[in-house]
# Entry
Amino acid sequence: MKKVKRPDWDEYFLNITKLVSKRSTCMRRNVGAVLVKDKRMLATGYNGAPSGIDHCDKAGCMRSKLRVPSGQRHELCRGLHAEQNALLQAALHGISVRDSMLYATTQPCIICAKMLINAGIKEVVIMGNYPDKMAAQFFKKAGVKVRIKK
# Structure
């Protein structure tokens, strides 16, 4: 009998984050996030404008127009981050994310890190870094395990 090659759990959920990121409407970076508990998906999110607001692919990118470097001045953006959207989707549907994991295509920024810490996320698994050292420091101080998987 032929043995089937199955992805491990990290590979499985990171592949889903890549698919989720394809829904992003950001013109600078496509990010996907998946909240998982006990190997079950709780919610997904991608970066883009709030519901009912024109997306950047239609309205243009304010950050590009103002030449804002990546990782700075997050308030100058029409969009929500993928991690924020995943947390908000869970909240909208009454799903607790306490003691869950976040899988994401990139390291969360400091704003998302603070939200994830207060939401009770215990582990973050990412595919790549993001230029935000403070976020990494906050995760470490809060005891949130961060793993990078390529």
Observations:
- The chain has six helices and five strands.
